[in-house]
DNA sequence: GTCTATAACGTGATAGAC
DNA sequence: GTCTATCACGTTATAGAC
């Protein structure tokens, strides 16, 4: 792995120095995070209020704010939860594949992961949007590195600008996932394979 | 054109039966629309309140609601404004190109249009997100049709599923534009050409 | 016809009850 | 340690002044 870890690192960075939390606390936090994921997936970030979270959990707003410092803290926790699941899943798949097939593995698992967890996908999309920090390439760099390694493993010249190639592939993945979110009948696996085929054709040119 | 018209048609549909509006009214509306575009581009849909629009225009909230029926009506007007500009621009470029080169023209003008108007791009993105109506393929169908026509003009078999191909290209365009919004130095023209090269390679396979 | 002042509501966060 | 009642603010929309 290592590639995707960087993605997560940005989020996890400030959180060093956590106090140990009780079992009931941990359970409540987990419950609230799950509820928040569902609500954000359904209504979006801005439309998800503390009141709606509290109501879904059967408690009051203040109780939510006892377990989390602020609304943003709840959102950040929910985002971190789905992001770490994504990183672990895709990272493992990429690491298990030989370097020259890592890009295909990345595309397949990324699409598969999101298709299997529509709620997570929607949360990640929402987070991507509402995250107004200028992410200096954090989005495309991991994939660009995987693509470069694959080319090296095949003994090819570095062809198209890796940044642009990673952006194109990443954007295509987003579009395929987005289509699945709107139409549950859309065949994402076939979409992923089409994208991989295009990528192979472009890499050999 | 005709392809992109459909995109706009959805939005424009209900608005038949408009009463003629006075000059000052039209001017105010235009002013408010421009202001709204700027604010939405800067802060996003949810964070753009009537108060912020009114303040930027130097009037009160109520005055805004005299010219538009509701906050959503202001937003819809702003969206319609940027969308019609996009449709007119890209549509003209596509129509001017021979069928076999229409996809390339589409990509170039789409990217160019957005790169030249970052505010418009951001508004379109925001609208895409907050538009929770299930758009039955409205997003990819125009491009899919252009791609199919190009293949026909070249006497090629219909290869990859046109829906998937359109989704991939559309997603790639979004990613290229998104990158430009975050990094003004990113060379979108080069990105567009890379995408077109990939598309050509895939079409010939 | 154009706009200002006011109202009714929902929000995130706090102070304090248990 | 856990949660409820309360607060101050910003929101959209309306009623009414000019």
Automatic annotation (TrEMBL), chains A, B:
Q: Which keywords accompany this UniProt record?
A: DNA-binding, Transcription, Transcription regulation
Tell me which residues make up the HTH tetR-type domain: 26-86
Give one Pfam family. TetR_N
Q: What species is this protein from? A: Actinomadura vinacea
Question: At which residues is the DNA-binding region annotated?
Answer: 49-68
Q: What's this protein's name? A: TetR/AcrR family transcriptional regulator
Q: Which InterPro entries match?
A: Homeodomain-like_sf, HTH-type_TetR-like_transc_reg, HTH_TetR, Tet_transcr_reg_TetR-rel_C_sf
Q: Looking at the keywords, is Chloroplast present?
A: no
């Amino acid at each position: 792995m290592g590639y995707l870890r960087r993605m997560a690192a940005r989020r996890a960075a400030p959180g060093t120095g956590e106090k140990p939390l009780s079992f009931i606390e941990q359970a409540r936090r987990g419950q609230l995070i799950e509820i928040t994921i569902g609500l954000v997936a359904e209504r979006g970030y801005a439309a998800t209020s503390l009141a709606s979270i509290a109501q879904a959990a059967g408690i009051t707003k203040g109780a939510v704010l006892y377990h989390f410092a602020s609304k943003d803290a709840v959102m950040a926790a929910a985002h971190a939860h789905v992001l770490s699941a994504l990183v672990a899943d895709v990272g493992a798949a990429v690491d298990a594949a030989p370097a020259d097939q890592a890009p295909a593995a990345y595309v397949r698992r990324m699409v598969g992961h999101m298709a299997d967890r529509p709620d997570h996908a929607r949360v990640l999309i929402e987070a991507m949007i509402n995250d107004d920090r200028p992410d200096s390439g954090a989005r495309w760099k991991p994939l660009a590195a995987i693509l470069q390694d694959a080319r090296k493993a095949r003994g090819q010249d570095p062809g198209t600008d890796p940044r642009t190639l990673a952006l194109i592939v990443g954007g295509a993945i987003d579009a395929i996932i987005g289509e699945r979110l709107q139409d549950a009948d859309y065949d994402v696996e076939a979409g992923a394979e089409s994208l991989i085929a295009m990528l192979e054709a472009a890499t050999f040119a």
